[in-house]
Amino acid sequence: MTIEVRIPTILRPYTDGERAVDGKGDSVAELIENLEADHAGIKERLIEDGRVRRFVNVYVNDEDIRYTGGLDTSLADGDSVVILPAVAGGAPRSDDTAAAAEGGPRRGPEGRLGTAVAGG
Amino acid sequence: MLTIDRATHDAIVEHARRDHPDEACGVVAGPAGSDRPARFVPMLNAAMSPTFYEFDSGDLLKLYRDMDDNDEEPVVIYHSHTATEAYPSRTDISLAQEPGAHYVLVSTRDGAHEKGPVDFRSFRILDGVVSEEEVTLVERYDDDVSQTQKAADR
Question: Please, what is the Cα angle at B26 between B108 and A19, to 5 degrees?
Fold first, then answer.
């Protein structure tokens, strides 16, 4: 079985620059395990504490899997999966801008896709 | 450096003023590899908040499908701060996940949503590091205007 998985720019370093890769699995969780086998490190960018990260969106046939069972969402041959980072942000707290300008801690809200340090 | 045409610049400012005191957000797409913000796409702030913005997940998918179909990329990702300066917050920095984009911040604080100049600044955000860049306003893009227009018409 083959499932097309669209890879966002920020994760293409894991796929040798490929915009889409073939995947397989009966569920999104299985698919991600299989992706990890070929593209080591990608799973950690997608999953945290057994769930898809807060600021990562995964769609199966255009449906956000948050509304279709999360990682348990089932997959079949020919399905298409799209991974997209959320586009989000927020206004600073009172001391926030200064800290950022000084190169303060880079760790942000849990759940972002783009950093290996997220998750703590 | 970000080079942007005045009409798009003004559209971003107008969107920020209209949505004040909530944060406004959106994208300016452009032909892949061109670094030219050509197609203004205001987005709904699903958070509808004065201190947070997030594209709706369904809208986000549609946006990326459209850009794929047009062979475009998000050249500019913009949002407003409505009570603070036009500088990326720590949250903005940690959530920036488009390494190729110009992150534009505008501020409508201190009455700027009604009148007077609106701060309009542009940044690169890579691996948690912010670099401000110059913004150059042009009346129109010199070369290949037809391509810009084509992208805008889609």
Answer: 150
